[in-house]
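Worked problem 6 (solution included).
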Amino acid sequence: MQTRDLTVTSTITNLATFAREQGTTYKMVRLLNPWLRGRSLPVSAGKSYTLKLPAGRSF
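Solution. The predicted structure is:
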């Protein structure tokens, strides 16, 4: 599966909603980013994360 990287610099309060907005599912986001531990992604000031997402729409 081809993926794309997305740099996140602000908190994502609901990863399921974020996934839908990105054209994928929460399950796929968790599959590609096994380091995620909850249903949100808190980002501290000055910090960033890189999420892997499917390159195309997955549904």
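Discussion: Residues 3-54 form one domain.
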